[in-house]
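User: structure tokens for this one?
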Amino acid sequence: MALIEVRNLTKIFSQDVRAVDSVSLDIHPGETLGLVGESGSGKSTLGRLILRLIEPTSGSISFNGRDLTSLDRRVMRELRRDLQIIFQDPFASLDPRFRVEDVIAEPLIIHQGTSNGSPSSDGTKPNIGRRVSGLLRAVGLDESARSRYPHEFSGGQRQRIGIARALALRPKFIVCDEPVSALDVSVGAQIVNLLAQLQREFGLTYLFISHSMPVVRYLSTRIAVMYRGKIVEIGRAEQIVERPGHEYTRSLVRATPEFLI
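Assistant:
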């Protein structure tokens, strides 16, 4: 059974703009579905719809067989443990007023009512500090990062902090929304390799959104190509890149420079 099932998902903004137009797709446990297309194709909107960060106009989204579109916000808040996102701009997604340990601990504290362990006198969990340290190690950052602020780090390091925060609640599914597009090539390659390593270590399932076909091919099990709000082609990664069936896919393959991992 698919972990994520999307059926006829549509999002219409003002003036009848169909950002996502009757999209259907499945994402299977443990795989990476790459979602590729040019800017404005609807990729990020689709990712946010799947997480219900924005509400669909019509269609359905299921997670583990459960229809997310029928759930109220209270139940969705509980399910948020399993559904996370890594944003494109690591600096904009991190609160500059928080130290790194607070950034990573925030989702643990918010969801502590359904976490293991008993609260301490200040309302936090006694194991949160250990979890923060373990997450920093998992993303390749030193323990000393805990007491520093986001502005003290490079772009690649900030993205590692964002990844640690996304992992904090041990999710099953993560939307990676162009997580390397704001980084230079060498740093982006390191982040892509880190995501692949973490997927194996934590048993994660990804929707990996990008405009770069080589990056998507490297990380993805399958690739979906999005154009003007629609999925125009979907299939195994090597088939999509080496034998594309749609002219738009062929233009993406021709236009995107190689990305060395």
